[in-house]
Write a structure and sequence with these properties.
By secondary structure, the protein is of the alpha+beta class. The protein contains twelve helices and eight strands. It has a domain of about 170 residues: Gcn5-related N-acetyltransferase (GNAT) (Aminopeptidase, 3-Layer(aba) Sandwich).
Length: about 270
């Protein structure tokens, strides 16, 4: 049992007041991949193509001296980064898929009994100074993880403690049909990573899937999600399928991970007795 002053992280179901924090977390997670996509584009044929077009337009179309037109190369780099950045920004806007999902969490993740959305909430003593909070983020912290049941039982003890939503994860029915779950939007704030929070969220989703008799959990990850893929392999997920999409004329691999889910022990005993 953790004391009040110990670092605590509660993994619980989503509440309406978590929407802003969830949007912020997933938005920053999406924007973090800008650099990876940018370097993929720069190191491919995209850069010389854009640079050549920029130089040709400047020299032929505008009549700019050729040696000035060579500035088209760094200009092309800026253009590529700006386009990728704007594309990522539009992805998290309310008009596109990610933005729509973040503004419709109750409808998409909470209306059906076999779907859910969780948040990881870090609790810090209100007496802690801002400097203490900053140092806590910078150093290695071992959290005491609580579920909703333990958190509710200790509600009086945890009164007055500052709470910050630092991680999210959703589970819906798989797009591929069957008794399969589809994990969405696993993300943790950068300052709170490598502390077991993402793993705890995954464990909660796996336990939920087991209790709701799902046969399998699936998710998709890209080449940019290096650390996430390491975690998926660690938890027993395996790549079942790889497909490719083109972003700015650069082929990007997408990996569909899958994890078989065992039925609850009670159900296993019933099956074995048949």
């Amino acid at each position: 049992m953790a004391s009040i002053g110990a670092p605590v992280c509660v993994v619980r179901r989503y509440k309406p007041e978590d929407m802003v924090a969830a949007q912020d977390i997933v938005g920053k997670a999406v924007m973090e991949t800008v650099t990876d996509y940018f370097w993929s584009a720069v190191l491919s044929e995209v850069l010389p193509q854009v640079a050549l077009l920029t130089i040709a337009f400047s020299y032929i179309g505008l009549g700019i001296p050729f040696y000035f037109c060579l500035l088209g190369i760094p200009t092309a780099v800026v253009i590529i980064y700006a386009v990728i950045w704007l594309a990522h920004m539009s992805k998290v806007s309310s008009a596109l898929e990610v933005g729509q999902e973040m503004t419709n969490i109750p409808r998409l993740f909470l209306e059906h009994s076999d779907c859910c959305f969780w948040v990881a909430e870090v609790l810090e003593c209100s007496e802690a100074s801002d400097l203490d909070a900053l140092m806590n983020k910078m150093k290695k912290v071992e959290y005491h993880f609580m579920g909703e049941e333990e958190s509710s039982a200790r509600e009086a003890e945890l009164q007055g403690i500052r709470r910050h939503v630092v991680g999210i994860l959703g589970l819906t029915k798989s797009r591929r049909g069957g008794m399969k779950g589809w994990l969405r939007h696993l993300a943790v704030k950068k300052a709170y990573r490598r502390r077991g929070i993402a793993q705890q969220l995954l464990d909660e989703a796996i336990h939920f899937s087991t209790e709701h008799c799902l046969n399998e959990i699936e998710l998709v990850a890209t080449e940019c999600h290096h650390k996430a893929r390491e975690l998926f392999y660690k938890k027993g997920f395996e790549v079942q399928h790889t497909y490719f999409k083109y972003y700015f004329n650069v082929q990007q691999p997408f990996y569909i991970f899958s994890l078989p889910v065992k039925p609850p022990k009670a159900e296993l005993s019933e099956i074995s007795s048949l």
